[in-house]
From TrEMBL:
GO biological process: nucleobase-containing small molecule metabolic process; pyrimidine-containing compound metabolic process
Sequence similarity: Belongs to the cytidine and deoxycytidylate deaminase family.
Catalytic activity: cytidine + H2O + H(+) = uridine + NH4(+); 2'-deoxycytidine + H2O + H(+) = 2'-deoxyuridine + NH4(+)
CMP/dCMP-type deaminase domain ranges (all copies): 9-139
EC number, UniProt record: 3.5.4.5
Record key words, sorted: Hydrolase, Metal-binding, Zinc
Protein name according to UniProt: Cytidine deaminase
Record: active site: 63 (proton donor)
Length: 139
């Protein structure tokens, strides 16, 4: 993807963190590891990985692990600079609907979400608004 130098710098900072996060995934049921990396307002990076359960519906995706960890560490909703999601077993990862709804709540609608699989040339840079247009939002 063609990016501004600012976006490219965010991408390059977040990709190795998301790869490292994916290596910590607990995914014995799907064998589909995913890693996420979330940049805070002050430039720190918080990782997330998918954590599965034998009661399959209890699985937590990498994106939500990163977002929930960040909130628990005291980061403020909508204060984040960018998120990157990485999944090595697909050419391009696309976040699930549940994660998109959580992103709407905790990320600014213009926040970039870099999505990357094993084929970096297929990577896509989406915003939260692009991922869930017309979302159910604060009432
Ligand atoms: N998964 C994520 O962590 N993020 C995504 O964007 C898509 C799916 C996880 C959930 C489950 O552990 C595995 O990938 C297969 O669906």
């Amino acid at each position: 993807m063609k990016r501004s130098s600012e976006s490219q710098a965010l991408y390059e900072r977040l990709l190795p963190e998301a790869i490292a996060a994916s290596e910590k995934a607990w995914c014995p049921h799907s064998e589909f590891p995913v890693g996420a990396a979330l940049m805070t307002a002050d430039g720190a990076v918080i990782q997330g990985c998918n954590v599965e359960n034998v009661s399959y519906g209890l699985t937590n995706c990498a994106e939500r692990t990163a977002l929930f960890s960040a909130i628990c560490q005291g980061e403020k909703p909508k204060s984040f600079r960018a998120m990157l999601v990485y999944a090595p077993k697909v050419a391009l990862i696309s976040p699930c609907g549940a994660c998109r709804q959580v992103m709407v709540e905790l990320l600014d609608k213009g926040c970039p979400v870099f999505c990357v699989g094993h084929d970096e040339t297929a990577a896509r840079d989406w915003t939260v608004e692009q991922l869930l247009p017309g979302a159910f939002d604060a009432f």
